[in-house]
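User: Hand in any protein.

Assistant:
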Amino acid sequence: MKRIILPVLTLLVGIVSACNNNKTLPIYGNREAKIVTAADGSQKVDTIYQTIPAFKLLNQDSTSITQDNFKGKVYVADFFFTSCTTICPTMHRNLKTVYDQYKDNPEVMFLSHTIDFKYDKPSVLKKYAQKLGVDGAKWQFVYGSKDEVYHLAEHDYLVAVQEDSTARDGYIHQGWLVLIDKEKRMRGAYDGTKTDQVEQLKKDIATLLAEEKK
């Protein structure tokens, strides 16, 4: 597979490693300062962070999935395709260990977007989920148009994806597992092919859950 690097998330992994001992996770993505007016008329400068926007995709059960399905949840997002023979099998075997650790926690969900808009229809995603050993609504495998999914990947989750006829499987993409908080903000990104980073993801989910209870 060709290597494609997205600077923001490449830098982010290094920062995450440096923040392992922090009790509060950083917030990533674009941000802007905005003047807000309080109820008493006073004004202050507030920071507005990049968030995952509204979306509508079909899941493995041919049911529409929107941002509302993840309301009040911490979730891990990634981009893959079912016929991938390179990084996807390793990514999802590793992510399955995270799923298994948090499968009984109702505050944690998982969201995998296929980038194969030609083949990975809901019925294919269903078989893939079953083969992986996943059942129920906790881990959603979703399908959408190329424009919607690719835009979400590159502009919102900051993960590079690309259709490429010269690539081994016809697509190239990064193997990031992106941690999203209950406010729809990015709080971490982890190389799903590396066991040490997946282990850090497990710890950071616990940190984020504890943080949001304060």
Observations:
- The domain at 7-211 is CATH 3.40.30.10 (Glutaredoxin).
- The longest strand covers residues 31-37.
